[in-house]
């Protein structure tokens, strides 16, 4: 066993592995990374089966993110797509565009790491994989919307699905705005 975390962009062939990552309990198994894609009324009406089917369709149509594996075992996922793929980001007072913001950004919105694989560098590998995924698809700027456990140490694991400020900082992102004490807008420019 090497224990090395490897990532790749998801596609139809990785769907069964994604189902393993999302599991059948907890927030991830209900959301299936649809919170930022649906209107509030559609979100409120959606069932677990609906959100699962939506992500499955999105995976079939393209690649909305990356999967991580350790020794071949699927252990994590990060969602990364153009900002425009996430309508709720444009409506949120935290993430909506402001004057001077670049228009062509990609957004890393969500991390899911299976509980038994946490604290093994999976989120760091996922962020690096998300950057490469975006770069390969023409992205020049990538944003994240992480939480800051230093500002509020009581943040639960469920509240950290955006990633943490330190994770993004270590990934080469710079803080461009602090919409609240516990949330940051962080951005990284990609080179070819």
TrEMBL record:
PROSITE patterns: GNAT. GO terms for molecular function: acyltransferase activity, transferring groups other than amino-acyl groups. Keywords: Transferase. It comes from the Bacteria. InterPro entries: Acyl_CoA_acyltransferase (IPR016181), GNAT_dom (IPR000182). It comes from Leifsonia shinshuensis. This is GNAT superfamily N-acetyltransferase. Residues 16-191 form the N-acetyltransferase domain.
